[in-house]
Amino acid sequence: MKRIFSGIQPSGTLTLGNYLGAMTHFVDLQEDHESFFCIVDQHAITVPQDRLALRKNILSLAALYIAVGLDPKKATLFIQSEVPAHAQLGWMMQCVSYIGELERMTQFKDKSDGQEGVSSALLTYPPLMAADILLYNTDIVPVGEDQKQHLELTRNLAERFNHKYNDIFTIPEVRIPKQGARIMSLTDPLKKMSKSNPNPKSYISMLDEPAVIKKKIKSAVTDSDPEIRYDEKEKPGISNLLTIYSLCSRKTIEELTKDYQGIGYGQFKEDTADAVIARLKPIQDRYHELIDSEELHSILDEGKDHAHHTAQKMLKKAEKAMGLGRKR
Length: 328
Ligand code: TYM
Hints:
Elements: E1 3-8, H1 16-29, E2 34-39, H2 41-44, H3 51-67, E3 75-79, H4 85-94, H5 99-103, H6 106-112, H7 120-123, H8 125-134, E4 140-142, H9 148-164, E5 173-175, H10 210-218, H11 236-249, H12 253-259, H13 265-290, H14 294-322
Helix pairs in contact: 3-13, 4-8, 4-14, 8-9, 10-13, 11-13
The protein binds ligand 1.
């Protein structure tokens, strides 16, 4: 069985972008892959985090993983900082990374742009991400479009390591969905929807109340030409809503454009909001059952043990390949 690995940062409440671009695919893939899904808290601290909010967000993400349909019997769910092999291999991957290639990462450029006191970890974020993936002999990494460049770097680092030291790492493939790989902001449909955007109107949180979802979608930026059709260049706002509506209702974009011929944006937005609400409702219900439960902790304890056991084997191989420690 092929292995998959993916991670999400607990840096705020997850958005509809995280759900449609990544999580729904995790749920499908767990059926016929050996799966590891990580809460990457060490990646989250590359930018300042409030201590209590971070702790809360870690558990909240764990509950969401399960609420969307990840089954702890099929998939291993765990917290990155609880498996020390990630930081250990992360350091080793930094030693095979070049500063120049890290500085070229668009995420680094975006997150450091105009900031004072940028942490060195923001630059060395991708070698840690490579370590996450390589520790598990991962074949496939399901992610949204914005992670493509990090995945290319992961492959390069793995090949470089294999060539320089010993051929120990599986070269992972990236899996980006055909639809929904880049859900856009509701206030600026040329930018991706992001949980770190300071304007909450720009994104739909997975835990937003129905009335809030309605309001946000109603005020989503569109255009003045009344036709509902998919055209990313001319009609980015409507195209984004069509993608969201299609993925939430499981109707194709062609079906929707036919259904909405001659119907105005008002009705279309109303129905898009209803489709999003209907899709998120069962997830939210399950989330609220789980969030304060002991069950969540036992799932994370088991996940930690299994991930630790698996990762340790690769860590030892990598240490041996680089000559760290002693031979016993
Ligand atoms: P993060 O936490 O920013 O996002 C988690 C996942 O959601 C996807 N995503 C989106 N997809 C579609 N439209 C959007 N607007 C949107 N926003 C986010 C992301 O592509 C991602 O799949 N570096 C990673 C976390 C990470 C990781 C890993 C991922 C750390 N180690 C190892 C895979 C494998 C990140 O910041 O994702």
